[in-house]
């Protein structure tokens, strides 16, 4: 599901009233002191949002409208732009759109060069800028760029949104108050931009849930490659809602790369949904590329998974297999496993519906799934530095070290959410802790040594605590040229 959100400019994103009025007064003043034309600044400011010729119409004869408007546009960069400031919440509104992988489109009655100058002045960067469109004509650009939500402060912005069949979100930051904006048909009226991120999160989540439901319902039946993590757990629950438990099968691959305790949790979750849970054995170790552990290791791991689960699904009379790949994964830039799954025809409903990791967690929390706040739990092979050969004993050592480290944290009074023990080769280990746990350990002189000792007891020759803390995919930092593995 692609997303584009549109914004009006003047009095929606920026307070341009002072600059517009000052530029108009300067342009009219050039007509000469004896021209007799007088403009009420307050009345002029109340009309901001319509084309300049229309703003000038009450004050000037028809033959002067175009020349003065043209002169206004010449003066505006020097006089009006420096007087323009961002309205409260403007930067956060753009950030909210990008957080859900949306595109920012600004459509204004101003000429495009002036729009760009204003955005640069206030430090806002749009993906698309379109100028010289007003009211329903804005719908032309909104449709062209796939805008489904349009924000503005003027009745003309509401007309533009509706012309494109977009949701009209009105903000009462300009000359029109909330009742007036509601009266012209705004779908949503907000007092300003500050509440917009919360509204957008809920709106997009609802839309993506509906999209996901439709995609899953269209499959008829489905096998979910179910690791037990938050993504595949949410996908499994969504499939049950769309298809019913009898048309969904959960398949959890069992191998040495599955961390201790993960299978029990996956089984309990599937049982709670009432779906059949299969536990096929996979043998990644039989693949040379997996054991070699170069940067494309995940390709061979995912290939093994789908080469086992795919035929299993077909033996059950089910053609479709889906993974829990989300939209963030697709943008991560280094996911060879995604390519392996795509080559084998696996579906990625979460990615296709646009679900970010945060949205997966939000939806899982809404549905009260026990996995909604489960820490990330990548396979054990992700803990081993690229170039260090993967062995069964090496995976077991990492699993044991992490279990012992978590036990020490629990017994030592350190609340830890994310913990990784990274095998760097040559019997060296690096311990990564989430920010809060890392701070707690560093505040106690004895704690770091005790935690290191717990990891050493699992069989490592040396170990150290990473001062940067936990970060997903940190082993990719050690790759000199990850592009060759994509």
Automatic annotation (TrEMBL):
Coiled-coil spans in chain: none
NCBIfam families: ATP-dependent sacrificial sulfur transferase LarE
Sequence intervals crossing the membrane: none
Gene: larE
Record has Nucleus as a keyword: no
Annotated protein name in UniProt: ATP-dependent sacrificial sulfur transferase LarE
GO MF term set: transferase activity
Organism: Angustibacter luteus
Keywords: Transferase
A Pfam family assignment: HAD
